[in-house]
């Protein structure tokens, strides 16, 4: 069953690239950037803000990020209050034409309301924001990016 899920995700990512037209995409997280690269193929230039070994809850905001976002067509956010630092970057970039995509749209959010205080280590009032770790959610994320 697991292999069929992976094949379904791979097929959507492969075939959805044909309808993608944006050239420059900034992603808050490298996982979102990776999915966007599969959707966009060679038509997309992807830049990820957070690095793979970074804590996605808090990322140091650098002026160079704002410069790249200022030149981007799309900004991909994880949403669910995970990458709230993205809003400061988008505002600081001054790009009024950028399309901000909340990649969590349509995701069945787990643990909603269970971790609304810091007693569990992280504060996730909107639910568990690490939804991209489920391969099936990759299909939803890819569709959000494509749309």
Structure description:
The structure is a single chain. This protein is of the alpha/beta class and 147 residues long. It contains five helices and four strands, in the order αβαβαβαβα. Strands 2-1-3-4 form a four-stranded parallel sheet, covered by helices on one side. Strand 3 (74-77), helix 4 (85-93) and strand 4 (99-102) form a beta-alpha-beta unit. Helix 1 crosses helix 2, helix 1 packs parallel to helix 5 (135-146) and helix 3 (63-70) crosses helix 4. The two termini are 28 Å apart. The mean pLDDT is 82.
- Placed side by side, the strands forming the largest sheet appear as 2-1-3-4
Tally the beta strands: 4
Ends distance: 28 Å
The proportion of strand residues reads 5-15%
**Oligomerization status of the protein chains:** single chain
In brief, what are we looking at here?
By secondary structure, the chain is of the alpha/beta class. The chain has helices spanning 2-16, 30-40, 63-70, 85-93, 135-146, and strands spanning 24-27, 45-48, 74-77, 99-102.
Essential attributes:
four-stranded parallel β-sheet; 37% helix; 5 helices; globular; 147 residues; alpha/beta
Note the topology.
Layout: H1 2-16, E1 24-27, H2 30-40, E2 45-48, H3 63-70, E3 74-77, H4 85-93, E4 99-102, H5 135-146
Parallel strand pairs: 1-2, 1-3, 3-4
């Amino acid at each position: 069953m697991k292999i069929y899920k992976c094949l379904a995700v791979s097929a959507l990512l492969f075939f959805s690239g044909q309808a993608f037209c944006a050239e420059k995409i900034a992603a808050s997280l490298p996982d979102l950037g990776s999915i966007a690269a599969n959707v966009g193929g060679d038509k997309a230039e992807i830049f990820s803000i957070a690095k793979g070994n970074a804590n996605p809850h808090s990322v140091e905001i650098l002026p160079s990020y704002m410069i790249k976002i200022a030149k981007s067509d799309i900004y991909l956010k994880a949403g669910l209050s995970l990458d709230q630092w993205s809003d400061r970057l988008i505002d600081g970039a001054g790009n009024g034409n950028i399309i901000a995509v909340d990649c969590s749209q349509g995701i069945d959010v787990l643990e909603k309301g269970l971790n609304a205080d810091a007693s569990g280590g992280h504060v996730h009032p909107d639910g568990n924001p690490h939804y991209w770790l489920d391969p099936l959610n990759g299909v939803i994320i890819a569709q959000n990016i494509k749309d």
